[in-house]
Every structure is written in C-alpha cells, then in structure tokens.
TrEMBL record:
Enzyme Commission no: 3.5.4.33
Keywords: Hydrolase, Metal-binding, tRNA processing, Zinc
GO molecular function, one term: tRNA-specific adenosine-34 deaminase activity
Domain CMP/dCMP-type deaminase positions: 29-141
Top EC class for this record: hydrolase
UniProt-recorded name of the protein: tRNA-specific adenosine deaminase
Subunit text: Homodimer.
Catalysed reaction, written as an equation: adenosine(34) in tRNA + H2O + H(+) = inosine(34) in tRNA + NH4(+)
Binding positions (Zn(2+)): H80, C110, C113
Note on how the cofactor is bound: Binds 1 zinc ion per subunit.
Gene: tadA
Protein's job: Catalyzes the deamination of adenosine to inosine at the wobble position 34 of tRNA(Arg2).
Protein's UniProt keywords contain Zinc: yes
Stretches with biased composition (Polar residues): 11-21
Source organism (scientific name): Comamonas odontotermitis
Amino acid sequence: MAISSDGHGASLSTGLQSMTADPSIPHFEDDTHWMRAALQQAQAAAQAGEVPVGAVVVRDGVIIGRGCNQPVGLHDPSAHAEIQALRDAAQHLGNYRLEGCTLYVTLEPCAMCAGAILNARLARVVWGAAEPRTGAAGSVVNLFANAQLNHHTQTTAGVLAEDAAALLTGFFAGRRQAQQVAARAAHPLRDDALRVDEKIFSAGCDCAGSSCFYSNWPVLAGLRLHVKDSHANGSGAPAAMRWLMLPASPAPQGLFRPLAQALAAEGDRVVVPDWIGLGRSDRPKKDAAVSDALHLAVLQALVEHLQLLPDALPAPAKLVIAAHGDASRLGLALYRLLAQAGVPLARMGLWLINPALPRHATPAYRQWLEQVQRKPALDVVQALQSSALDGLPGADIAQWQAQFPDKGHRAGLRAWARDAQAWVDAEAGSMNASLDLPDASLVSVGESAQWWPWPTLAALDTAPRLCPGGDWLPLQNPQALLEHAAFFRSTPQQ
Ligand SMILES: [Zn+2]
C-alpha cells in the first residue's frame, strides 16, 4: 500500500470539481470537516500498528459510523476502514441500505470496498489520497464510473489528500526504520567492521539452504558470520552425511552451489560459511584483525554450535570437510584439530579439491597473492584470469568482484593472501606444512587447472582423482565431483 507523491497530487487537482449536482444528494459545504474525523480514525489505526486508513459515514450532518483499518489485529482481510465504517452505520440504522449517507475515507477505496459501497447504495463517497496500486475509483480501475454497476454513488477525490498521504508515508518510514533497528540489534555492526550491501549478492548465485547469521559466539566477538545451511534450525531429519565446504578466496559460499544442491537433494546436510572478511560475513577494517587463526577458531565453533559431528548416528555417518584451492590449509588444520580433540577418525573425512600445497606454488598463483596484497584497487576478475576460469557462470565472477566495492572492504581478502603465501612458502616438515594426509582423505584435481596443475601434486602420498575442469572445479564440473563424493559414503573408515 505505497503512496506515490504524484498520485494524490493529480487527484487533488481534479477531485474537487463538483460531481454533486443532484439536489437529492446530501452535500456539505465543508467536506474537510468530515475528512478530519476520518483522519482521526486513521491515526487510531496507526497507533494500533495498522496501515493508517480511516473512514466515517455521515447522514444529515451527523456521524453514524466509524471505522479504522484493522486487518492485522482482527485477522480479517475484509477489515478495511470503509467496511468497518459501513458495518457500524448499518447497525446504527438497522438497515444494510445506507441511502442518503456519505462515506469519508482517507484513501481511495479498493475493489472490495468499492463493491461494498455500491451494495450499500451510498449517495456519495469522498476520499483523500489516491492509491496508485490498488485504487478502484480511478487509479487502477474505476468501478464508480461503470454505469452498469453504479446508479447511486457520486464521488469526490482529493479532500485533505496531503494529510492522508503524509500519515501513510510517515507510517511506512517509521516501520522501515524500526525494522532496520531490529535487524541491527540482532547483529549490531561493530565500529571497526564493515558490511557489504545485501543487494550485491543475488540469490541465484547462492548455495542450497537458508542464510543463517551468527554473532554471539565468543570467538566472533560480535562479528556477524554468514553460513548457508541446508538443515537450518533443525529442519528435516538428522542427516547421516554432513559436508562442511570451505571455499577458496575470493569466492563466497556460492562456489559450491551445484554440488551443495545435489548433496542436499540426497538428504545430506551441507554447510558452507562465508569467511570473516568475505561474502556476507562482517569485514574487519584492519588486515591484522583477520587471520588463519581466527578462521580456524570460527570453524571449530561452527562444528560445535551446529552440531556437525554425527555422534549418535550409526556408521557410516560422518562429517566430511571439503576444502577448495587455498582453503585446503584450513581444511587440513581443522581435520587435525578435531582428531586431536578425540573425534574418531571413522567419523570424519577430508576432501581437498585442487589443493594448494607448500613449496609447489606456480608463478601465476604467487602473482595473484602478491597483487592482492600490493594493489589496493586490484581488479579481482582481471587478476583471476591467470587461473582457469573456463565455464564459470558470469554472474558468479561478477559477484566475486562486486563484494569489494572499495579498499576498505578488502582487509579480509588481503589477510587471506598474506596467510596463504605463508602456507605455500612454509618449509615441508614444519608443523603447518606437513601434509601427511589421513587415509580417509580424497584429492580431486581439474585436468586443466593452471594455478594448481596436477603434476605439482606428485608430492602427495595419495593418488589424486582427475576430472575435466580448471581451477574452480566446484562450479566447473560439479557432476564429476559428485561422483568423487561417493568415496566418503562407501569407503570403510579406520
Ligand atoms: Zn478496501
């Protein structure tokens, strides 16, 4: 029920032309007097939290019916102000025919109310603001102008239209503001962080499941974390297979969209976070505030709070950590942490997709990491061209770039590149660089990958599974990855 500012202005200029030439029709010199009474009803509606529309029925200079808009409070779609006022007047007269009466209403009547007005055989209806979206007295249709329908009711538009429209616009502005305040109160934005406009992210590029936001875990310290979860709020039966998917920077959670949809369709639970500093999660303004240590602690909290470990379910129920590209360092670290914490290995799987490995970075990948850190206004999409982008949906790539509207939003991006560089430079054998992949792990590699071409993975002690596709396999060849995923359902663990 939005009011356009030009809509009621137009009706104001034409509406006051008299349409009441018939002397049998009651006419009052001062329609504004009765419209003020209708506006009082509209104010009462606003105070009750209803869209402010009010109406009165007048006969022989006396108000015999009053009504305010109450569809929400009465759980009644017909409880518009006009209907309420007509009912009140009809009770007063003991007659459904309201002959000789005039209805004053603050907003142009809708089709339902226009029908009721015609059925009541009102002599006259006077309204204030035009309703460009639903008005049935000229704005959308004009039921009063149809000679086959209307033999009785004269109309006058635009009486105190500005007052009525101001009530409505004030009401909607207040409600929007209250909603924004409530949204911020649920996840208030820290002074030292930024949040990207939601409009940047189109739903078509999102993973399966609901968008969930968390900010009250101690590790988050008030930063808002965005997670896509196919089983949000306990919806659906408990899934035996749980997939925690970790996208490489700068891709948000949508990188795993086709794979996540296919696995969720099989009843699995698929959880994909946006890293702090990327996607829809909050972005600290300073690089130093984002680190692998923070990401890892957030992942641990995620596993715990979302109860991703299938403790009470029979084998082969398990949590599979699926990490893409240079998120592999965090996938591996999380797997080790959970194992150290005593999670049985039979309850976990590790899946590395085009993994980034220590001491094997290609020059193109190194150049990407350096550019991200050195160039504040780097065109992300252009810089990504050095990876194999074949077959990626354009909307996804556009979104990867759009999530960095300015330098201030890039702290998470820079911090990621800083820590990724430290990982690929790390000496083999050091605590962080040691691969030593567990038996329950699988490595999938795109045949045409350029940043992480499969021959560099010769260092692995497990044979990678090759499939057509480049560096962004989850979007480029989800079908092949779906076949690889079967490894975790069928392989006996331990
Ligand atoms: Zn209505």
